[in-house]
Amino acid sequence: MKTIVIVGGGYGGVALAKALEKQHHSDDSVRILLIEAKSHFYHTVGGLRAAVQDLDDVVFIPYANVFTSSRHQVVHATVNRFDKKAVYLDSVTQDGGDQIAYDFLVIATGTNYAAPARIECAEMDQGKQQLQQIRQQIKQARHVLIVGGGPVGIELAGELKDANLKDQQVTLIHSQSQLGHPSYMPLKVHHKLVHLMTSHGIQVLLDDKVDLPPSSSGTMVVVPSTPLATSHKGADLSSVDLIVMATGNRPSPQWIQASVPDLLQSDNYVKVKPTLQVDHPDFPNLFVLGDIAGLDEAKLAYRAANGHTPVVAANINTLLTNGTHLKEYKKGIDIMLITFGKSNGVTILPWGIVLGGWMSSLIKSKTLFYDRYWKELNQPVPNSLK
Ligand SMILES: Cc1cc2nc3c(=O)[nH]c(=O)nc-3n(C[C@H](O)[C@H](O)[C@H](O)COP(=O)(O)OP(=O)(O)OC[C@H]3O[C@@H](n4cnc5c(N)ncnc54)[C@H](O)[C@@H]3O)c2cc1C
């Protein structure tokens, strides 16, 4: 029996688990174990709307049906470290062990986002409580300051606008003169988004910064204990009573650092070869996919699931059957969809093509792919989504 261990049941890990099960459908010499720290899949892409609207029964999706065969399993545990033979867990599994031997190992542990984009709680009940608290804080706030004008900050501004909370003022502050980053956001998109925000009464402060209370580091939602000063450029922020951090995602590589520090680049992403094996001579059976892979590209769920997954699945299959010719990953075209509430947003395509609100709403803003991921996890779609 060959064991394939995937660490991380996010968009990439789940897609790979399903692809491998399909590939080895009638092959009972292969066992797939998906190890995930959370008891449930958290649909990050829809997380910001869940901060203003009760979507608790929709945004957390059970892992129970990921596999159709009982030979394969989702293991609810955190991997603390690994070596050439096994992964070591923070808890004892149903089988009574705290380590799992592998023949192939896949790192799919993504990057960290602050809540509510990502609720990191291990158990669903705690996660729901955290979301409820965030919704309450947002509802009570009279002046919300969003720190960060990348896709998460912009999408959150759109959700706050849709929530239409009476008398609530929203300010977005961004340290650069252009929203997002010029590598993926053309100037015309920047102008369109600034217009969308300001025309909905959102104050946009560009090329400006604010001194934050120390408690804001690492969390998304902070109630300042003393009034904020003005921004560096002099905007009055003294009435801000809720700060929401949207300063991007970061890898949390502690378990890799504790295992094989050489695997990490200086920016803490994993060194990877075009075959999506890690770039380390001692680990030919170790693969990496999704956000944590040190690839020079926008970090996107569709890329993890549709770009990386087929390459990793094919290469594991080749090595399992003693083949030598491995596939190489080639980055596809960049497509980015940024919502602005349910009925607006922008879709950025290659060659400078930008689609506006109607099309963006049709593709993403309206539904945030909720039903798609219930289906992806082989779960019946909740009635509220039908
Ligand atoms: C608001 C928002 C909107 C977005 N919209 C889009 C969009 O429209 N389209 C798109 O393509 N992308 C979108 N993204 C980006 C997308 O969410 C990420 O690219 C995607 O989550 C990456 O998938 P992944 O599988 O690499 O990792 P993740 O989805 O981050 O999953 C990693 C998993 O690993 C688990 N884990 C971590 N460490 C351990 C460990 N040591 N042991 C066990 N388990 C562990 C975590 O609990 C997590 O479940 C959006 C992101 C945000 C925040």
What fraction of residues sit in β-strands? 15-25%
What is the total tally of β strands?
18
The CATH class designation of the largest domain is Alpha Beta
- CATH domain fold name of the largest domain: FAD/NAD(P)-binding domain
Helicity level, as a percent range? Answer: 25-40%
Q: Spans of 5+ residues with little confidence (pLDDT < 50)?
A: none
Number of helices: 9
CATH superfamily of the largest domain: FAD/NAD(P)-binding domain
Computed CA radius of gyration, to the nearest angstrom: 22 Å
Arithmetic mean of pLDDT: 93
- Give the termini distance in whole angstroms: 42 Å
Q: SSE order in H/E notation?
A: EHEEHEEEEEEHEHEHEEEHEHEEEHH
* Small molecules bound: flavin-adenine dinucleotide
CATH architecture of the largest domain: 3-Layer(bba) Sandwich
Strand order within the widest beta sheet: 5-2-1-9-15
The total tally of domains equals 2
Shape: globular
Class per helix and strand makeup: alpha/beta
Q: Biggest β-sheet: count, sense, barrel? A: 5 strands, parallel
Provide an overview of this structure.
InterPro entries: FAD/NAD-bd_sf (IPR036188), FAD/NAD-binding_dom (IPR023753). Belongs to the FAD-dependent oxidoreductase family. By secondary structure, the chain is α/β, with parallel strands linked by helices. The chain folds into two domains: 2-37 and 77-112 and 250-320, FAD/NAD(P)-binding domain; 124-248 and 335-385, 3-Layer(bba) Sandwich (FAD/NAD(P)-binding domain). The protein has nine helices and 18 strands. It has helices at 11-23, 56-59, 124-140, 151-163, 187-199, 254-257, 301-320, 357-365, 370-376; strands spanning 2-7, 30-36, 40-42, 60-62, 73-76, 79-82, 86-89, 99-101, 104-107, 143-147, 169-174, 203-206, 221-222, 242-245, 286-288, 336-339, 345-348, 354-355. Strands 5-2-1-9-15 form a five-stranded parallel beta sheet, covered by helices on one side. It is globular and about 65 Å long. Flavin-adenine dinucleotide (FAD) binds at residues 7-13, 35-38, 44-45, 47-48, 78-79, 108-111, 113, 117, 152, 155, 255, 290-291, 299-302, 304, 337, 364. Flavin-adenine dinucleotide is lined by residues 7-13, 35-38, 44-45, 47-48, 78-79, 108-111, 113, 117, 152, 155, 255, 290-291, 299-302, 304, 337, 364.
